[in-house]
Amino acid sequence: MQQLPPDARVLLICHVNPDGDALGSMLGFGLGLRRLGVRRMQATFPGPPEVPEPLKGLPGLDLLVPATEAYSDPDLVVCFDAASESRLGDLVDRLESAGTALVLDHHASNTGFGRVNLVDPHAAATSVVAEELLARLDVPLDAGIAECLYVALSTDTGSFRFEATTPAVHQLAARLLATGIRPGDISRRVFDTRPFGAVKLFGEVLGRARLEPAAAAGHGLVWTYATLDDLARHGQRPSVLEALIDSVRCTAEADVSCVVKQTAAGEWAVSMRSKGAVDVSRVAVALGGGGHRFAAGFTGRGTADEVVDRIRAELDGALTGTARG
Ligand code: 5GP
Ligand code: MN
Fold first, then answer.
1. Per-position DSSP letters for 159-225, written without gaps between them
2. If you ran DSSP here, which 8-state letter would residue 62 be given?
3. Which protein residues touch ligand 1 with a CB less than 6 Å away?
4. Minimum-distance ligand 1 atom for the alpha carbon of 156
5. 275, 305 in Cβ contact below 8 A?
6. Can you tell me the distance from the alpha carbon of 189 to that of 167, in angstroms, rounded to the nearest whole number?
7. What is the pTM of this model?
8. Ligand 1 atom closest to 281 (CA)
9. pLDDT for 274-323, tens place per residue?
10. How far is the CA of 83 from the centre of ligand 1 (A)?
11. What separation in angstroms does the CA of 229 have from each of 9, 19, 70, 226, 265?
12. Which atom of ligand 1 is nearest to the CA of 296?
């Protein structure tokens, strides 16, 4: 990276429907490259160029361009938080057209699709990998970089509550906070702010949640769904539903939780979470998606009931294969 010619064009890409780790690690790394003197740089992600409302305060958003305007043959492409090429949508061709491709990720299922792959399945977030690389490049953390990486780290650790929250995670958080960023303001903006319409929408969607204690071989399944019509009635964008799984997964009686979110006619983005008895990434991979042991997802087709039927069937299959099952 230090040998990059000054006029090199660098394209940063994160996964479709970017979350805090995808955007935060990408923009934090981009701001770091800017400090190294990289001037011709774009950041992008596949699909509509819409940043989810909670992430609209991230530093470095000026790096973003719509996927349609991204360099067609960059000198360097760097991918963030994407376990496989399929997560790059239409931008996948840049892996071929770029001079070289670097992958930064933390999914155990990462397929190693870059020329150089910095993949640490033990890292709590892609931002951990990004910060390590910035440190090796001797880029000092400033408040802008730190805020991006902090959003990424706190998103993927569930605000430092999940199992992946190691001493090293808190040490990284300490380095980031030492730049003077304000965790209270950041957390309120990223996690604790939503329009009243979204509060009402959540009420309706949570009101129709189903608990199936016998599912997942008795470990229990809780699930709900939200349609495009639900969103339209409450005047909300699809990205407000990202936080819904956190309310559903509280359910004491179920190890597995699931939210089925309509994205188009007959198409659903499925979020799954587990408390530990079930490896939901196995279910997601079997249904064409991916993710981590405790958090995974896939694209489902048909009706919401058909999608949940498939999940139920795979849950039983996944459990017969696990030690605890
Ligand atoms: P979420 O439920 O927050 O959207 O996603 C949880 C995890 O599942 C993420 O870490 C992401 O890697 C993975 N994931 C979600 N949806 C998909 C998908 O459609 N395909 C793949 N491969 N992974 C997904
Ligand atoms: Mn991540």
1. TTTSTT--HHHHHHHHHHHTTT--HHHHHHHHHS---HHHHHHHHHHHHT-EEETTTGGGT-EEEEE
2. G
3. 19, 83-84, 87, 107, 245, 271, 289-292, 295-299
4. 10
5. no
6. 25
7. 0.92
8. 8
9. 999 999 999 999 999 999 999 999 999 999 999 999 999 999 877 765 44
10. 9
11. 42, 23, 32, 8, 11
12. 8
- Count CB neighbours of 293 within 10 A: 15
Dist. CA 269–CA 259, nearest whole Å: 8
Nearest ligand by distance to the CA of 292: 1
What average pLDDT is seen over the chain?
95
pLDDT for 175-198, tens place per residue? 999 999 999 999 999 999 999 999
Ligand approaching nearest to the C-alpha of 126: 2
Q: What angle, 0 to 180 degrees and rounded to 10, lies between the N-to-C axes of helices 183-191 and 143-156?
A: 50
Place of tokens 């963030």: 80
Tokens of 75: 């000198």
pLDDT digits (tens, 9 = 90+) for 151-168: 999 999 999 999 899 999
Position 323 scores a pLDDT of 40
Encoded tokens for 30? 């981009």
